[in-house]
Structure formats: C-alpha cells, structure tokens
Amino acid sequence: MKAVVFYKHGEPEKIQIADVPQPKPAHNQALVQVKACGLNYFDLQVLRGPAAEGSPLPFWSGGDIAGVIAETGADVTRFKTGDRVIVNPSLYCGTCEFCRAGEESMCETYGIIGDTIPGGLAEYIAVDESSLMRLPQTFSFEEGAAVPLVFQTAWRAAISQAKIRPGEDVLILGASGGVSSAAIQIAQLAGARVFTTTSSADKVEKAKQLGADFCLNRNEGDYWAEISRLTNGRGVDVVLESVGAATWMKSLQSLAKGGRLVTIGRTTGRMVEMDVRLVFWSHLKILGSTMSNRKEFADVMKLVFEGKLKPVIDSVYPFEQARAAFERLAAGKQFGKIIVKFDQ
Prior knowledge:
Layout: E1 2-5, E2 16-19, E3 29-38, H1 41-48, E4 64-72, E5 84-87, E6 90-91, H2 97-100, E7 111-112, E8 124-128, E9 132-134, H3 141-144, H4 148-161, E10 169-172, H5 178-189, E11 193-198, H6 201-210, E12 214-217, H7 223-230, E13 236-241, H8 248-253, E14 255-263, H9 276-281, E15 285-288, H10 294-305, E16 313-318, H11 322-331, E17 337-341
Parallel strand pairs: 10-11, 10-13, 11-12, 13-14, 14-15, 16-17
Antiparallel strand pairs: 1-2, 3-4, 3-8, 3-17, 4-5, 5-9, 6-7
C-alpha cells in the first residue's frame, strides 16, 4: 500500500510517498481503508524527532482518521465491511487502575495512533473494534477526519478539567489551531465569554465567526494588556494553554484570583519558568489534560453529529501532495484542520 512516510527525522522536505506492507487485522480488529486523515501539530513533532532514539523507520503519522471498513477480524461483531467510520486515536491497555476507572487517557501505557504506532497517513490501517465509531452519511470523510483528536482534547480540557461555567471568561491561545478552533466552540456552547488570540486580520474574523467574543491579533500591540483592559483588570477565569514556554508566565498572570490554567500542549517548548508566589497568593489551579476518556469522546462526538459543534477545515490535499500539506502546517498558515485525502 501507499503511505506518506519519512525515513529520517526533520522538516517537511523529508516527507515522501512510498510502498509499505499492508497491515492484517487481528481477531479483534478491523482493517480500515483510509479516505481522509487530518494533520495535527503533533504530526510535526513526530516528524521532527521522537523523545527516545531508536524508533523504527520508515514511519508515518496521522491520528485523525476517517474511512471505510475493508475487512474484519473473526471477533468483530459491531461493524461489517463497507461501514463508514472514524477512529478514536487513543491507545490504552484496558486493565490498569486508570482504565478500570474509566480514565483511559491516563492509562499507564497510554499512546496515540500516529505517534506510538504508525498512523492514518496510509491507504489502510488496522485498528481495534473498540476504537471505531460510525460516521453518519451526512458527514463527508474530510469532515470526519477533522474531528476526533482535536474535539476530544478540547472537550476534556474545557469541560472535564476546567469545568467552564456560564458567564465565565475563558482565554484560548492560538485560535487557528485544530484544538483551539474546537475549544472556542465548546467554551461558547458552555456559556462562557471567549477570548482568543491569532496572527492576522483574516484569522480574527474567522475566530469570531466560530463564537469568540474577542479575538486579539498578537502582532498588533500588547494583547495581554488588552485582555486586562477588557476584563477591567480582573483577568480571566480559565486559560487553555497550548503554547508552553513562550506564554506560560503571561498566561498565569492573566488569570483572576482562583483561576484555572489547563495545559494541553507545548508548541514553543516544554520547559517553563514561573513565579510560584503568584500561584499560591492568587489561589490558582494548574491542571494537565491529554486527549479524553471513552465517555468524553462519545459525549463530544454526539454534539458534533447533532451539528452543535462543527468541524473546521482549512484545506484538503490529495495524498500525493502530502508534503505541501505538512509545509502549510509548519508555516502556521492554516485556520482549522489540514486534511490529506486518499482517492481510492
């Protein structure tokens, strides 16, 4: 089968199309013929190099997958050949204390398709039946591939961890990212007043169309001072922090007393500095959040399929142009999800 692979870690110029062995589904798995796969920032992180040396190459990433069942293992009962599906990219053991408690994203061996194992940037992928969800006929494969990873991440961070309440002020950094564009909608649906940031005038308008009350262009003045002004010096109740090193201290300083910072990423680096006095003096809460558990995934996907939350697609590339898709992602030009489409 064809796959979008890299043989050496680096930048998008390492991306190429190659023939790789087609997987065979295990007894509890289905073979999915991939129709579309969404890119996420973590795909760039995987391309640029793993935390540990020795990962097998070639490798292909891709965690947001939509397609059609091509074959089923002997023990698969809920799906049949031809079913349209999306894939929950979470990998978990199912037996540790966290999995038994229904907290799969805290699993002791937790991983993500496209990072821990090769992903959906290939013509086929074998996945566990438990990871599959039916894709309604009303949704295109491209829309299906724009949803699973980003919406479950945003939902757990905003609803389960931050516990956003009606009337609260919420700051979501980087409006154009997949998780942030989902989080804007979720926070708005929860009744919050939504603040966000981005890098250009056209992206400001797109963020407002999604439901942001205020979208500040970070290239025009001190947006942190503007957030303080807009909240009458009080600060915001919640920050969804995906940037890391470059914004960490400012994010904490932007919180009102008793505020919550939920960290979900590190696009500018994982090592941060902070004044711990601010945390205890202002009674701040710092919460971590990664992906979601199975119930949260089901809850947010129900809202998506009901049309209350909407996939945000920036652009669609044929898989032969996957390198260009990675280049757009690396340049930060997108608003929403970049989709790689497989025409089969």
